[in-house]
Amino acid sequence: MAGIEEGIKTLLDAEATLTAICSTDIYPNKAPQSAAFPQIVFTQLTSDEYNTLDGGGDVRSIDVDFDCRATRSVTATSLSAALLAYIRDFTGAAGAETIRAVTVQGEGSDYIAPTDGSDKGVFIKTLDVQIQYTPA
Amino acid sequence: MARVVSKGTVITQDIAAAQVAIAQINSFSHSGAETGTVDTTALDSGVGIELTASGHATGGSFDFSLFFDSELAGHQSLSDQLGNPIQRAYGLTLAGGTAITFNAAGIGFGFSGDVGGVNTADVTLPITGLMVYVT
Hints:
The structure holds two protein chains of two kinds. By secondary structure, chain A is α+β, with helices and mostly antiparallel strands.
């Protein structure tokens, strides 16, 4: 793990309003099977490089989905709300990277039904966020 | 014969008698250059309109867009021209090394931004005379 993924992980791991709900169960791309719920799994979807004739710029833009997962709907919603409140206007250091602007693009929900015939599925609240940052 | 990539093109402006590169340009275009004509269609001409070369040509305009940084001296120099509208020399060096020069009689300048984007500026340079093309 390196770059902005590490930066986001570092940033969220240090935020008390999130760790009060999900500890540091915050993962890029995929949570390990052993990870506890609730958890946050974030995935970079796209990037925009703002290229110029004289080379790459000092700002990149990425779209990131944050999946807030919990075994109870109300917990997934609380985790998503805490994440939204923290990150929506965040600027500053994220690990070695520097976040310049965060723009929330949308929110959605999902439910993963259990495969063992039980009633214990996973509730997901997803935040779609654009992050503009200066790479280290 | 070769395809000349656009990345690496350098556009310069005259600052204190030196050509200085303008940073953060992301696109450019030259348009509107054309030779002048005179309509010499007479009453007894055929169906087709008859045009005759006037012996002059218009240089058109050179436009470019950039990621605008108002703290950058080279960008300030562009907007400063609105308050000091004089003829100015510009240069264009294509990525293959070809150099083209021209003079602009003034400038058009505007900038914009939007949520989720970065600030950009659009520059229009009305060319006086003609570009000095490679021939």
